[in-house]
Design brief:
Length: 510
Amino acid sequence: MVAKLNFQSLQTCLVLIYMFTSSTISITLPPDLKDKIHIDPDAIKAASTDYGHIVTQTPAAVLFPSSVEDLKTLIRFSFNSSVPYTIAAKGRGHSVHGEAMATNGVVVEMRSLVKNGSRIVIGGDKASGFYADVGGEQLWIDVLNATVQKGLTPVSWTDYLYLTVGGTLSNAGISGQTHLRGPQINDVNELDVVTGKGELVTCSKQQNSELFYAVLGGLGQFGIITRARIVLEPANQRVKWYRMLYTDFDTFNEDQETLMAVNESSSTPQFPNYLEGQLLMDPNSLDVYPPEDRPRIASLIKQYGILYVLETATYYDVGTKHYVDKKLHQLFNSLSSLPDIYTRDVSYVEFLNRVHTDELILRQKGLWDVPHPWLNLFIPKSGIQAFNNGVFKNILVKQNFTTSIVLVYPMYRNKWDDNMSAVIPDEEIFYTAGFLDASGFDNWQVFDNKNKEILEFCDKAGIKVKKYLGYHDSKEEWINHFGSKWKTFLDRKNQFDPKMILSPGQKIFN
Ligand code: FAD
């Protein structure tokens, strides 16, 4: 495959002629951007892959923007062209199935905007509420560091913070805070978006609300987020972080839901602030537990096949420490976990940035940049017991997928705004299950097949799961995924990106 630049026509436009063995494709790009559009092998290679290392899609070119104006120019030029090219904003490319790629189109390396300064501005006041105006290309870790310096913090997070604001807001952004504060898309007051027509539009629930709702959870389909106004609150300094073990799934679930319900009735300070859960199936991966306890935990895993780990955390500072200690003590007395509770007391930033510690270890071992055949699901509460039996016990344990990282925790539907594009199950309580496998380059299909088996099981058992961060193989599957929201999604697409230019890697319209 050869990409050739036609400089003769540069007065009017920049033409990329893209030659394949069997076909020639040419796309015309805006001349104003010629210094920022790259077609060198390094730029193309970086834009052709992602964290999944499963899909490879080659773009014709890569834009390294230095301003929002560059994004407008790129999109407007395509929109006005007789043969529009597709455009994918790429945050960190931490998608796993090519969602931020654009075959034969243009990938926009959003992180290139960072060179123009941090674009994180904190505003507001105590009376009307604090906020951070943040560029879509910014990493959540940088938002955290900038806000805690002022004693403030966003309220909703992802487990891992080296993701871009635009990338997570295009999905939802979930973690252990979601049960209490909703997903990250819930905690945004305003957006600047460059639509699929190349227009820069400010939107919120009050102004251009249709675009606002479309973009949040909108899988990059309606515009590129160039600024998000994120809700802030005062930051605590410390975190009490607990792990409790269960041999029985029902008891584990009940206790998760008990903890989740505390906030429905309690006043300030709200707690627990964070609630997740994990499967423990590998007796050789017990590093987070004290050495003297490991043999006992390992033998429980051998006996039961799975231990369920309830993970919860509560923020505190000097003023609330006593109150939090007392309340947690009372609360934990009402739970039914095994007697030992594993506790850590860490700084707020250390807690939120916890996955980065694992990242550094995995990078050192060469295990970070490997295939990630991930599956993330939302499961209605009515199906979660059957899911435990059919998937955790009958697929994972029986087929020996015991080294997989598997998360499972509940959240409330009423913490999500149904006007937004994100899709969740119909029931008031639903669970997320994340199968976060890492594999070799030669055996990711084994995990992919296991994921297919999980979906087939749900289908046969009538468990109406929704994929999160999910890819679908056909338009019909996407229509099924969106269900009653499909018509709105389609109408919004026709309104804001009528030429189907944006985020082709999601494979919804392209
Ligand atoms: P990309 O992968 O680059 O892009 C994702 C999609 O958004 C693409 O369609 C892209 O075109 C579009 N997009 C990117 N930027 C913009 C923008 N500015 N405007 C409009 N569209 C845009 N997710 C969670 O919810 N919770 C977690 O706890 C969590 N943990 C993770 C841990 C790890 C280690 C990894 C790798 C991912 C995790 N994720 C989690 C998934 C993450 O939210 C997605 O990968 C998401 O896509 C963010 O990654 P990104 O910023 O690299 O976006």
